[in-house]
Design brief:
Length: 117
């Protein structure tokens, strides 16, 4: 089992920055990839960024150039640095872990990010 705990959400004005953290615990050795998703009411959960166990990263086109995903393996923590935030970035952000063993998918509880114009 893997447990994910997010932190760092909050309210910020447009153009500001926030950093989200996701601390993993439990069977972290089984994690292949970690990611950040976001969701707004009435919409599907959207993949924002992911990082593999080897450190390769990928970001969605909507956040490229503004967001950065990184990880600290010693702390089993993944970060999402969000710069130049826009009102359309407002969402609940979820941390996700993809593991090599069942049930394969783990989610954090979510953290609210609100960007005001």
């Amino acid at each position: 089992q893997v447990q994910l705990v997010e932190s760092g959400g909050g309210w910020v004005q447009a153009g500001g920055s926030l950093r989200l953290s996701c601390a993993a615990s439990g069977s972290t050795f089984s994690i292949n990839r970690m990611a950040w998703y976001r969701q707004t009411p009435g919409k599907q959960r959207e993949l924002v960024a992911h990082i593999s166990s080897g450190g390769s990263t990928n970001l969605s086109n909507s956040v490229k150039g503004r967001f950065t995903i990184s990880r600290d393996n010693a702390k089993n923590t993944v970060y999402l640095q969000m710069n130049t935030l826009k009102p359309e970035d407002t969402a609940v952000y979820y941390c996700h872990a993809l593991t090599a063993t069942r049930p394969y998918n783990y989610w954090g509880q979510g953290t609210q990010v609100t960007v005001s114009s």
